[in-house]
């Protein structure tokens, strides 16, 4: 097990693909053979961003997306065929990057986290840990983001304190056990294919 504490000063900023806003990039991975880190070489990415006005989402063919509101409430994603309801914070929605989506903000601006992966390159999951308790973690990369205040977790008997807006990156080569001790954490899990 390898753990790395990522702090807000370690995060980078990048524009949305459509230029309508700015991501705070928390962690990600790109194809090793690519000379540039861009949307074409993306394997996976975990980022936060404010949504301050209704508008279209970026068109991202071949990218699977998971999203969760971590600040504010009342977000609805509308496509021509369905709605993705994120009105309540810490609700995860999954959608394909090629779907045409326009946001509706029913109660003002929100802050969201996004976990994105190239389809076929990785399996991804996104969950809010709100209640103390234990859960298994499979081999892969796991990000524990303190979205709302400080939190404490236990990994295989070792305790970790994560300050507000910091992220504990956990890289596992074998299954492990995670327990939320206190606070609230967002858990992003990535398992690369192959």
UniProtKB/TrEMBL annotation:
Domain of life, per lineage: Bacteria
Coiled coil: none
Pfam families: HutD (PF05962)
Stated name of the protein: HutD protein
Organism of origin: Bradyrhizobium sacchari
């Amino acid at each position: 097990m390898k753990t790395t504490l990522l702090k807000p000063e370690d995060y980078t900023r990048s524009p949305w693909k459509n230029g309508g806003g700015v991501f705070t990039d928390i962690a990600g991975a790109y194809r090793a053979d690519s000379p540039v880190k861009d949307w074409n070489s993306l394997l996976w990415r975990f980022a936060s961003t404010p949504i301050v006005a209704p508008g279209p989402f970026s068109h991202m063919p071949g990218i699977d997306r998971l999203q969760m509101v971590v600040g504010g409430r009342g977000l609805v994603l509308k496509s021509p065929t369905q709605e993705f309801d994120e009105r309540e914070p810490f609700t995860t929605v999954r959608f394909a990057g090629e779907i045409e989506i326009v946001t509706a903000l029913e109660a003002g601006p929100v802050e969201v986290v996004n976990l994105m992966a190239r389809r076929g390159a990785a399996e991804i999951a996104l969950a809010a840990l709100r209640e103390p308790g234990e859960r298994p973690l499979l081999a892969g990369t796991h990000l524990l983001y303190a979205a709302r205040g400080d939190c404490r977790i236990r990994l295989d008997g070792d305790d970790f304190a994560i300050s507000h807006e910091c992220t504990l990156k956990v890289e596992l080569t074998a299954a492990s056990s995670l327990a939320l001790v206190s606070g609230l954490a967002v858990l992003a899990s990535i398992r690369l294919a192959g």
